[in-house]
Amino acid sequence: MKITTIIGARPQFIKAAMVNRAIQKHNMEGKRPEINDVIVHTGQHYDDNMSAVFFRELNIPEPDLNLGIGSGQHGQQTGQMLIRIEEVLLSEKPDWVLVYGDTNSTLAGALAAAKLRIPIAHVEAGLRSFNREMPEEYNRVLTDHCSDLLFCPTQTSVQNLKHEAITKGVYLVGDVMCDSVLHNLKLAKKNSRILEKLDLKPKEYALATVHRAENTDEPKKLRSIFYALDKIAKNGWQVIVPLHPRTHKKLNHSETYQLNDLVIIEPLSYLDMLLLEKQAKVILTDSGGIQKEAYWFEVPCVTLRNETEWVETVESGWNYLAGTDKQSIIKAFNTASNSELGTPPKLFGDGNAANLILHHLISTIP
Predict the structure, then answer these.
(1) Which residues are catalytic?
(2) What pTM was computed for the model?
């Protein structure tokens, strides 16, 4: 059985690592069928801190192919990916194309496979923000409607698909990111020295990440977010900001304002980031993955968006939707930093998602 895995961004590397680990274990135990997982990296994230270091740190086999697409306008980037992925699929002739999440790499992989009538499996299917201003929302919806197997992380995502009349091939498997956190946190505690490097004490700092185009491409929103972060820092908090390359570029070209009170650092490795999240008092982010990791680490989260795909984290009281208004962000942070929430319910599975995904892929063989 041959699978072609299409990845291009940091969260996808993490998810693919867990499924690939399950595949390798399956093969090492001599089980049938033997599975060949051909990993194709589109090059969407090409900075070493955003890409190559993940393969080394998470012990993922180096991609069999790196298409080197790089950045660009959404249409241009997706179009180039579509052309190159189609060439790969014509050469490899896989039984399944496996895509993850909601990036342009996800959509390009799904479209290329659909045109060639190769079955598609979508990990993290059924997520909806219901905000069509987000490019990711189109990627999610279109990929789901192309897919033959839809692996959902939560019951809400199953219901979202049902509302769109997608019921065939839908499986509730849990969140593969939960697998990763459970697997890698022990390694992070053992190997990461990020707290010592930054001279941080557990639960005495805030962690912030900003990378979504809806925030970085809007100067007014970006200024408002960083004004709020700077105000929080001026109020006595250490605010650590691992700066995404896109955000760094946009900050350099936006109106200047003082950020001297923030601790702005380069993007971190996955293990360093996990430990920094685990020990934070509050996390502020526009990342979907980090919202979940905050939840699993029992760290209150302030989401720098008006909506979230992970509505369960909001409903449970662990996630505060603040949007990008500076006063709303500061208010949500103050609430989150003083919250006492107890233990969150388990909503994302038990860390066995990768094995369930593999089981359902294998079960399709006649």
Answers:
(1) 211
(2) 0.86
